[in-house]
Amino acid sequence: MRKIIPDTANKLFEEVENVITPLARVVKLGIATDEERSRLEIWAICSVMVNGVDTPPD
């Protein structure tokens, strides 16, 4: 995978998690719309991809 600096990867991961958290909450409570469930799935994929980005060693 493309190498990026750790700070950027961490920032992206935090931003993705900030979107996922409220979506996951409404899905867990069973009150999510179809759109919210779809958005959660897409953002979860983004989270996995960002988390898998190689960063250079310290």
UniProtKB/TrEMBL annotation:
Q: This protein's superkingdom?
A: Bacteria
What the entry lists under InterPro entries is as follows: Phage_T4_Gp38_tail_assem (IPR003458)
Can you say what this protein is called? Answer: Tail fiber assembly protein
